Prior knowledge:
four-stranded antiparallel sheet, nine-stranded mixed sheet, Alpha-Beta Plaits, binds uracil, alpha+beta, 247 residues
Amino acid sequence: MYNIFGDFMERLQKIIASKGYCSRRKAEELISKGKVKVNGSVIKELGYKADYSDFIEVEGNPLSDKEDKVYYLLNKPRGVVTSSSDDKGRKTVVDLINTDKRIYPVGRLDYDTTGLLILTNDGDLTNYLTHPKNNIEKVYVAKIKGLITKEELKVLSNGVIVDGKKTSKCKGKILRTDKKNNTSVVELIIHEGRNHQVKKMFEAIGYDVLKLKRESVAFLTLDGVKSGEYRELSIKEVKKLYGEKNG
Ligand code: URA
């Protein structure tokens, strides 16, 4: 619905939730308790419609200067570039998401890597998740050429030299070995995010990665999200991500 100035009118609780202040249910509770003001007046009516240019205060905090934050979890397919634009005209991860916001990927997955990627316009979350001190856990499954042994995996887990620097200790598990095709499938749980890290780690012990998929980031998994599809993160998940820290 539009007002006489052509501004889009929306239920107050929806506007509050869309600014990332809290969930819609919590916003309803705050409205009922008289904690929300629109243009200086307390509004207790749940059906009240405001427009995005109104001056809204929740518990004394103005909302109007906050940009709408959006958060997506994408199951990245192969053959898509992890960036917002590509000078070679290739499809990017941002092209896969239907939004009018200027979103960008959190970290990167290679062109041929598949799996979980977060995209957002929230720079603070991006910094939080990519800062090495927060040790965010990432689970990868790699199909490699050759039959890896437990001893070799131990070497990898204890840290190998990548680009002149030793990788941190990590956990590894051999999920399958296929003697006929001479391949192995290995799960690797790492907390760093260096460029081409997993491929370089395997290279360091003499194995080429044939396929790579990121299965999870922190507590987020690909459950229910097929390749090429995405979903929005809930406010609860975003708050939990901000609290995520390992070690
Ligand atoms: N490590 C890699 O080598 N590639 C990726 O895409 C992600 C982690």
